[in-house]
Amino acid sequence: MNKESNNNFADVLAMNVRYAVLTKNSRIEVLVKPSPKQLRKRGKKGWHLFRTIDSNSEAAHLLEESFRSALAEIEGIGSYTNGKRKKATRSERKILASR
Q1: 74/66 Cα distance (integer angstroms)
Q2: Quick one: pLDDT band at residue 2, thresholds 50, 70, 90?
Q3: Which of 63, 66, 93 minimizes the C-alpha distance to 80?
Q4: Which of 53, 87, 52, 94 minimizes the C-alpha distance to 72?
Q5: Which of 42, 61, 76, 96 has its CA 20 to 30 A from that of 17?
Q6: Domain range spanning residue 20?
Q7: What is the rounded distance in angstroms from the CA atom of residue 45 to the CA atom of residue 60?
Q8: Which residues are 85's β-sheet partners?
Q9: What whole-number percentage of the chain has pLDDT above 90?
């Protein structure tokens, strides 16, 4: 399989993925070659499956993009697309200004 995908934990348990990017509140976790047991455990503890990456030649690049997207989503600034950050919305700028 040569693709990047967004799945739920039940779908990923049957797959053999190289990386799983998980998020929870203000945390990001990357699992390398996760076992079904690791994924079930994280699912029960409230982690959200942000993205999975299958084994391919671009896996490292896709992992970096996934990590940046997850970080941008957690920070609430906007998502990265093609290496460029989206402009923050008016409400996001107000939040950032109050920090």
Answers
A1: 12
A2: very low
A3: 66
A4: 87
A5: 76
A6: 4-98
A7: 27
A8: 80
A9: 18
Q: For the chain, what is the domain count? A: 1
DSSP labels, 49-97: EEEEE-SSTTHHHHHHHHHHHHHHHHHTS--EETTEEPPPPHHHHHHHH
The 10 Å Cβ neighbour count of residue 83 is: 7
Average pLDDT over residues 44-50: 90
> Is the Cα dihedral 13, 42, 62, 33 positive or negative?
negative
Task: Find out whether 28 and 70 touch, Cβ atoms under 8 Å.
Answer: yes
Whether residue 49 is predicted with pLDDT greater than 80 in this model: the reply is yes
Give CA–CA dist 26/9, Å, rounded. 20
Residue listed under structure tokens 């929870």: 24
Lowest mean per-residue pLDDT among 2-6, 13-17, 64-68, 87-91: 2-6
